[in-house]
Amino acid sequence: MATKNSELSSSEIKISVKHLNVGFPLGEKQIIKDVSFDVKKGEINGFLGISGAGKTTIIRVLTCQIPKKNWEGEVTVAKISPEKKSNHRELLSKIGYVPQLENLNLYYDLTPMVNVEIFASNYGIDKDIAVKKAQDLLSILDVPEDTWYNKTRSLSGGEKKRLSFAIGMINDPDILFLDEPTTGVDAAKRYDVLSYLKKINRNTGTTMMIITHDLEAAHICDTVAILRAGKLLEYGDPKGLISSLPSQGQIARLTIEDLDRNKINKVRDFAPVKKVMRSGNEILEVFMEDFDINLSKLVEYCIHNDIKIISLSRDEATFRRYFQIRIKEEEEREQRFEQGGGH
Amino acid sequence: MSGKSRDKHKSINDGKKIGDKDTGLFRLKKMIKKEFRLLGTDKMNLLIALVIPPAVIFLFAFMINQAGETPPIPCVVISSDSNSFVNPNSYVETTWDNYTFAYLDAVDNHTESLDLLAFYNTSEEVYAMEIAREQLLSGEISIIIVLNVEFSEMIIGGMPAFIESVPDSSDIMNIQTNLNAVADSIAAFTDLNNLTPQFVYNTYEEFSIPSEYSFQYNYNITLTLSFIIFGISMVLTILVVVQEKPIPRLLLSPAKREEILLSKYITYMMILAFQVTTIMVVCLMTGLYCRGSLIQLWIALYTVGMTGLSLGIFVSTLSNTKTEANQLFFALFIVIVLLSGIFIPVDAMPLPLQIFAYILPLSHGDPMIRGIVTKGKGFFGFDFLCLMALVAALILITFLIMKRKRYEV
């Protein structure tokens, strides 16, 4: 039974990475340090991290862009290892890729349909099938029909982005890799872009791996990975990660008059408090044990210590807040490590 | 934000507190600094921009200043002086030819600008003129000097003697040089033999075009055809690789680098075929006289075009930015034109430049095309083989560069 289960689960895994190390050269300048994770079939996986965290390096290993001499570990993408050069064409035929910048994916002086045809032909897809497929994809992505045969240059930024998604999907890939899909999109449209990705995922069941520093992307992700300085800090579903915070991610948001370091330390000294974070000039976010029981006690404690609370609200932590806490914890841990002489 | 940094932020936003630095000059200085920083990001481009212009001037100066003496012009002398001459007044028959040998001595030993390859006496070699013209056609010699029947008799009789010369007029640049060399030999001959310089000196232009065609147009267009074909094919291909930004993305599909490059060669070879045909048609319509076969001319022009195409794609693959490719094109084109033999004959250049010049396409393309158009020669020969070798080498190197080039999305 155990064997059957393990076979079933391994068949569902689309990306498997075990103990991945990347360096230029390997063993000296380590960019990725012992990263392991699996992405299951149909999942949207988000790799989140600030610039220089190593997100792009991981995607480059998975998409055969980094030669084997620069990495070690067990990696399979759609059950194919990028280790051997002879596997590259087969692997690349099973994936789609949407680069960060549209001009790397689109011929601006050609029409969207011709663009799709060009990329489809690389996968051996006939013009008729490519056109039909393009029509389906562009319809799903709400690219207006009257733009399909105009020059791509005349499309809006959002339309170009969606055309780029369509090109990434033209070969019905097992896995679609997306590099910073919301870059260059204004804040109001970012949600739309992410919604279109979710729509594609829902309609086609395509596994997606998104690398981004846009933490909003976590909303559409089934699993997220937090990467910092080449190390994988966390991996799991976003809600689960948020609920791993003290008080299951519940926050007491206090607006305190003349908030300063002394008052913050005073709040921190209250025994049930697990974490205190300043948010803005006068706002303090407080995580604590047994939230419901201790909230009123916290208010009494503040009054008792001459801390004037202007307002109080309860809130649930967002993934953004989780990310900030986790990164800060890691920074503090490293600081302690360095101060302790590396011990 | 700390109090200090908040204050700093405020002072930057408050124009009055910035003081003297808030001037157009200050901004201009900062912008110039920014431009230098941007230039520094493309070091190769900067290097080309700074190094190539003085290098071209240096090359030009080296070519001109170090140029040796123009090599002696290969020639043959044909004499009919030994043939029987009957004086119509006295019916005296003479076969005097002593001044023929005196002239040969002047050419061979006292005229540095001529290199006597052969002497034909028509009394012994009936087909002397035909043999000499074959030599002229093959490029073995550049001029035929003919001494007429009564050459010695006329000199002895104190009358002007006849000398005729037939220079290779397919090479318009050197016709006058060839004729001047003959004049040198006549001057040496009269000096050596204490003669009064009374000679009738006739010249005939071998391979000249029929009278109904424009001399001016034909010689100029022949000279520039190889430059035109080479230039346009290179210009057309100089950006084909470097400006195609989606190439790295294409490489994340099953497409291979070799396929991408090959598709470019095939496309531009097809365009080149069209260009060559069009240029030939236009040339013929505007009065080109081609002594050789038009098919041979087409093949020759296509071969020259292939060198431009291969060089263009090579530069485009090698370059990292469009500006770099444009700069390299300009530099290469100038060097190729400079060393093509237009300004100074390749043989007169310093030896290292001669070797370099013979690797360059126009040094072979121009004589090959001139040979077909003016002399009616075939395309197949040393020049053609050199060009094919150059094309093959460039294509091979380009594929190797493409294979090793780092593309990342």
Describe the structure using short key phrases.
heterodimer; A: about 350 residues; alpha/beta; Rossmann fold; Alpha-Beta Plaits; 2 domains; six-stranded mixed beta sheet; four-stranded antiparallel beta sheet; 13 strands; disordered N terminus; B: about 400 residues; abc type-2 transporter like fold; two-stranded antiparallel sheet; 7 strands; about 60% helix
Structure, explained:
The complex is a heterodimer of chains A (343) and B (409). With 343 residues, chain A is an alpha/beta fold. Chain A is built from 11 helices and 13 strands. Chain A has 2 domains: 237 residues, 3-Layer(aba) Sandwich (Rossmann fold); 71 residues, Alpha-Beta Plaits. Chain A is 38% helix and 26% strand. Chain A has a 6-stranded mixed β-sheet, sandwiched between helices. Chain A has a 4-stranded antiparallel β-sheet with strand order 11-12-10-13, covered by helices on one side. In chain A, helix 4 crosses helix 5 and helix 6 packs parallel to helix 7. The longest helix of chain A is centred in the C-terminal third of the chain and has 21 residues. Chain A is globular, with a radius of gyration of 24 Å. The relative contact order of chain A is 0.12. The N terminus of chain A is likely disordered. Chain B has 409 residues and is an alpha/beta fold. Chain B folds into 2 domains: 131 residues, 3-Layer(aba) Sandwich (abc type-2 transporter like fold), CATH 3.40.1710.10; 190 residues, no CATH class. Chain B has 16 helices and 7 strands. A 5-stranded mixed β-sheet of chain B has the order 4-1-5-6-7, sandwiched between helices. In chain B, strands 2-3 form a two-stranded antiparallel ribbon. In chain B, helix 9 runs parallel beside helix 12 and helix 12 crosses helix 13. The N terminus of chain B is likely disordered. At the A-B interface, helix 3 of A face helix 10 of B.
